[in-house]
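Q: Here's a chain of 123 amino acids. Please give me its 3D structure as tokens.
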Amino acid sequence: MLSVLHGKAKENERLRMNFDLRTTPDDTSQRMLNALEPGTKVPIHRHTDTSETVVCLDGCLDWVLYEEHSRNNGESDFTEKARYRICPRERKFGIQVPQGVWHSVIVHESSTILEAKDGAYKK
């Protein structure tokens, strides 16, 4: 199953693909497997209503946390605050990103993560 998911991720222009683990459409949690390929661009973002739990099943990636700096024109700049290597080979299995913390991901090799958040997906 994971090789099929990674095959789809490689074909996807975003270089990632998820597999929904919810048991019914009425389940408003977010539980998924996410296949991530090197070169995928995960913009700096945050989840204002939930923390995020990530467990890496295979591969190697960095979870990067940022601090926001507001500019006079209303836009923001970000500086890296912390970086955490997530790599099962190194016995670094996952991370809990607190609610509201700005973060992104750098993928070093094909990686599969289990990702969980509270509440329904919001665009």
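Q: Can you summarize the key feature?
A: The first strand starts at residue 16 and ends at 20.
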